[in-house]
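Could someone model DAU with this protein?
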Amino acid sequence: MAEEKTILVTGGCGFIGSNFIHYMVGKYPNYRIINLDKLTYCGNLDNLCELVDYPHYSFVKGDIADSEKVRGIFQDERVDVIVNFAAESHVDRSIEDPDLFLRTNILGTQVLLEGAREMEIPLFVQISTDEVYGSLGSSGLFTETTPLRPNSPYAASKAAADLMVRAYTKTYGIDAIITRCSNNYGPYQFPEKLIPLMISNAMEDKELPIYGDGSNVRDWIYVEDHCRALDVILHHGVSGEIYNIGGACERTNLDVVKTILEIVGNPESLIQFDKDRPGHDRRYAMDFSKLQGELDWQPKVTFEEGIKQTVTWYIDNQDWWQRIKTGEYMEYYERMYGNR
Ligand code: NAD
Ligand code: DAU
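Reply:
Sure, complex below.
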């Protein structure tokens, strides 16, 4: 059995964080997981409801940018690894209102880094994104040495956080790793992102809004493959390094949406071409040969399998996304946590 560890997961009530907690609890039942989450509009306690009585899991409601809260956790618990998922994550929202992105994504990361420095936490893992590299033309892949050229306020805030992580490793000698992953999809993804929005709209016979002409390309990875990569990296990754994670699965947005309509069984006439996203990155594609060569990881789930599993999950869990779309889940949080 793997040696016992205590992992502080931030943003564990979000899409990837909750999938990661489920994955880790399944694979390492003796690990202790502390989940620090502010429960913003996309943090959903439902994602982890099976773990309410699980003795090795605890939830702390709080903001990663609140240094007192963060210090309190480190004083109460001996944390071995911090995995920082917490972020404002949606590009369109960052275009509307960038302020909160700077506070959570940059300042919040710095507060956690400061905690890691003060308390000499053995490892800090920063969950970053391919968007820090900017946009590709029709050929080539992002490598770990591609210059940072973020194009949206979201991407710029993530790039700034990455640079702060680097500064803390160089200046204070903390042990940290940065991971940069491409577009994830799978269960528990908030229905504002392309895939869950299109699945849920298709199921409700609503229009499917595609920005521009639908020819922008993303490199899709099934969320469980991302979790497996993080597992390998946090156990065997080298401190100070950056690891790209990708799906080797480039698809245009139009292809993705047509595939979803085919699985749901609805006509392509639901597609509605909409005005383009400002600064819309053309194409993302990851070179993950470093992770593959050094740590023997590669994605396992094909897009064809993953998208079928994902549509099936949204069909089987209509209550989950309908509660989100109606806002009912927010009222529940208010009742549970409003006065904390
Ligand atoms: P998400 O929006 O679904 O979840 C974010 C979580 O962070 C939520 O639970 C939210 O409540 C929490 N949170 C937000 N601000 C907080 C704060 N100040 N303090 C504590 N908790 C806070 O996001 P996601 O898609 O799961 O992404 C998770 C991480 O992975 C992010 O850092 C994102 O940049 C990165 N990432 C995402 C993708 C993707 O395709 N979704 C790809 C690569 C990297
Ligand atoms: O690449 C990793 C990034 O992937 C993560 O860092 C971000 O947190 C995550 O949100 C995601 O960013 P994208 O902007 O690529 O994802 P989104 O789902 O918003 O959009 C995917 C593509 O679909 C993009 O080209 C814009 C397009 N799109 C999106 C929406 C929501 C549409 O055409 N219509 C839509 O309604």
